[in-house]
């Protein structure tokens, strides 16, 4: 038997609860893992609260990432005792995920636990830090240099935003943080932001083109915020879009793209090839200060994830929430 957060939808309605389950109930897969840590992400908040249609099958164990130790494997890629990490692949949405003491998944979804990180540190980074690294890698591939100018990070106090600021600062960029929580200004400046602006400066409907300011943008918000960020990006600049906290819509025009030649990179963290995942974590191991991980993250137990999911959905959670599933 093992404990897990279980999301149900039936005649009694939509609900999430802490449940005790039998190993026989685990979904199909060729690797069984004893989960050590998971995290609480925006998708997990949607899944637990039911505020977004992310769960595709019921009942569902949420948790889009986890780190753990292999118990059994029929795959040649992994053996019992291996430490492994998973991000994405529809886990926690269509396949039981990491907010559980046990998981069974496909071997192709796993990578070895990155060198230089403990299981807890890897999950302090989690999907948010890994996604931020993919955004930064997109900007690097664009040829962006610190001398090109300021980089805007939206949703700055969230998980992706926090990591994006820290990573860009480590690489020498001048970072401006946009947030709805100006009370977090000191936290954001400790991570490396040189300026903090109120999100309302970007979140309302704007013009197709605005005064050029940003050399590049990392956006986890979407909607009008992303549209305004594009409208303010300098000629030949780049925007990496990875989230939809404000909305899935994109009320923009072609003007920034055909008149200023900016590039919009869509960042998919869910089905990225193993080699690129490993490359992202290799960069993270070189760039992330372990003390910064402590500043960005804090730990809760499995049952507390139910309460924290509610807080996450109303924007009251700063940085990363690590879930110790065995407490």
Shape: globular
CATH topology of the largest domain: Quinone Oxidoreductase, Chain A, domain 1
Mean pLDDT: 95
Q: Helical content, roughly?
A: 25-40%
**Quaternary structure state of the chains depicted:** single chain
CATH class category of the largest domain: Alpha Beta
CATH architecture of the largest domain: Alpha-Beta Complex
- Tell me the radius of gyration: 20 Å
Tell me the number of strands.
15
CATH superfamily of the largest domain: Medium-chain alcohol dehydrogenases, catalytic domain
Number of domains: 2
Largest sheet: 7 strands, mixed
User: How much of the residues is beta strand, in percent?
Assistant: 25-35%
The H/E string reads EEEHEEEEHEHEHEHEHEHEHHEHE
- Helix tally? 10
The poorly predicted ranges are none
Description of the structure:
This protein is α/β, with parallel strands linked by helices. The protein has two domains: 2-113 and 292-324, Alpha-Beta Complex (Quinone Oxidoreductase, Chain A, domain 1); 126-266, Rossmann fold (3-Layer(aba) Sandwich), CATH 3.40.50. It is 30% helix and 28% strand. The protein has helices at 42-49, 119-141, 159-170, 185-191, 200-203, 223-231, 255-259, 274-287, 290-296, 304-313; strands at residues 2-10, 13-21, 31-39, 65-73, 83-87, 102-105, 110-112, 151-153, 175-179, 193-198, 214-219, 233-241, 263-266, 297-301, 320-324. Strands 3, 4, 5, 6, 7, 14 and 15 form a seven-stranded mixed sheet that branches. A six-stranded parallel sheet has the order 10-9-8-11-12-13, with helices on both faces. α2 (119-141) packs across α8 (274-287). The radius of gyration is 20 Å and the shape is globular. The mean pLDDT is 95.
């Amino acid at each position: 038997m093992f404990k897990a957060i279980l999301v149900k939808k039936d005649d009694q309605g939509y609900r999430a609860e802490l449940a005790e389950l039998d190993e026989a109930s685990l979904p199909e897969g060729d690797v069984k893992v004893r989960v050590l840590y998971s995290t609480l992400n925006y998708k997990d908040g949607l899944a637990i609260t039911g505020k977004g249609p992310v769960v595709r099958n019921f009942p569902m164990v949420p948790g889009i990432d986890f780190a753990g130790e292999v118990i059994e494997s029929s795959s040649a890629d992994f053996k019992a005792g291996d430490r492994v990490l998973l991000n994405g692949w529809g886990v926690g949405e269509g396949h039981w995920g990491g907010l559980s003491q046990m998981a069974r998944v496909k071997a192709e979804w796993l990578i070895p636990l990155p060198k230089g990180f403990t299981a807890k540190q890897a999950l302090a980074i989690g999907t948010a830090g890994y996604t931020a690294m993919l955004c930064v890698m997109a900007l690097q591939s664009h040829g962006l240099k610190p001398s090109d100018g300021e980089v805007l990070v939206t949703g700055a106090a969230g998980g992706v935003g926090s990591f994006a600021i820290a990573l860009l600062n480590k690489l020498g960029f001048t970072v401006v943080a946009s947030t709805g929580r100006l009370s977090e200004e000191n936290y954001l400046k400790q991570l490396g932001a040189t300026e903090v602006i109120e999100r309302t400066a970007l979140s309302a409907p704007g013009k197709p083109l605005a005064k050029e300011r940003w050399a590049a943008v990392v956006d986890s918000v979407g909607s009008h915020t992303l549209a305004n960020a594009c409208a303010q990006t300098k000629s030949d600049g780049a925007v990496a879009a990875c989230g939809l906290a404000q909305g899935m819509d994109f009320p923009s025009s072609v003007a920034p793209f055909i008149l200023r030649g900016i590039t919009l990179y869509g960042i998919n963290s869910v089905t990225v090839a193993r080699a690129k995942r490993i490359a992202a974590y290799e960069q993270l191991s070189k760039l992330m200060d372990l003390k910064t991980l402590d500043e960005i993250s804090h730990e809760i137990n499995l049952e507390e994830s139910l309460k924290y999911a509610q807080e996450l959905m109303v924007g009251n959670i700063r940085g990363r929430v690590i879930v110790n599933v065995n407490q």
